[in-house]
Amino acid sequence: MENYCLTAPRYKEMGYRRCGSSGLLLPEISLGFWHNFGANDDYEVCKSIVHYAFDHGVTYFDLANNYGPPYGSAEETFGRIFMESLRAHRDELIIATKAGHDMWPGPYGEWSSRKSLIASLDQSLKRMKLDYVDIFYSHRPDFQTPLEETMETLVDIVRQGKALYVGISKYPAEMAARAYDYLASRHVRPLVYQGRYSMLNREPEEDILPQCAERGVGFVAFSPLAQGLLTDRYLRGIPDGSRMTKSRFLRPDVLTDELMRCLRHLNEMAARRGQTLAEMALAWCLRRPEVTSVIVGASSVAQLEKNLQARKNIVFTPEEEEQLLNS
User: Fold this and answer.
1) Which residues span the domain enclosing 84?
2) CA–CA separation, 115 and 132 (whole Å)
3) Adjacent-strand bridge partners of 127
4) How far is CA 256 from CA 205, 237, 259, in A?
5) What are the pLDDT digits (tens) for 209-268?
6) Is residue 2 part of a domain?
């Protein structure tokens, strides 16, 4: 283990929110491993980002079995960092992983059968060098597997000590309600719902956020920067080497003239608030009391440092709220 010393005031630099009605506190800003932590990324850069995050109060690290690329490599990267420098701090960390999306060939490498979920979590624990994860998510709804089978598996995972808490991601509200009811009936807390939420995607405000508040479930927002659209990167077009030029998840045709006008308007608003567009976008998500944490990705320490500034101003005036709702 390397000689790694955390900064003493790290917990004073971050705000923490209770996850629903549970006793668990999560940082307002968390670090996601979806991109930038795969086998082809610079390991020393990955480690420096994780160290900077933890040094500044980020205690929640969000992974999934198929994050990379290639699949599994983000968990392997985290496992290496953990063994080298974070193992002594295990009780200060909230480590989450997920299963449900495509992971390995054949009929058991995706979706949410008992076979798939347990096999996937066992593999994830080995890659991350962990005895347990703090949160294990059903990564997406499975309309073929009986919901009771998936939820029963989550219950058993908790009772086996492989996860402290369980959550769901991207479930429609009606299915989420059934999941919450099943878990509660088995005396396992449905801790958290993870969903896509940003200034460009406000759908959770219609049903998911009110449901979370009613049920005492925390909400963790992923893609709060809309995969980089809510940054200054695309304000002048599509730069070479950007995610839009190489990712199948963000295609150039989404950057319409109408969206460009919207992004520039939002950028002007952010400037008047003394924030970057990215900072305002994160603050906008955090303005909602139902939101426990927002997950950000980072390809450099400098990028993460800028994103962490967002929590310094999460208050919006009624006039700003009106403008944003009409953007």
Assistant:
1) 10-325
2) 18
3) none
4) 25, 10, 5
5) 999 999 999 999 999 999 889 998 878 766 655 555 455 655 666 778 888 889 999 999
6) no
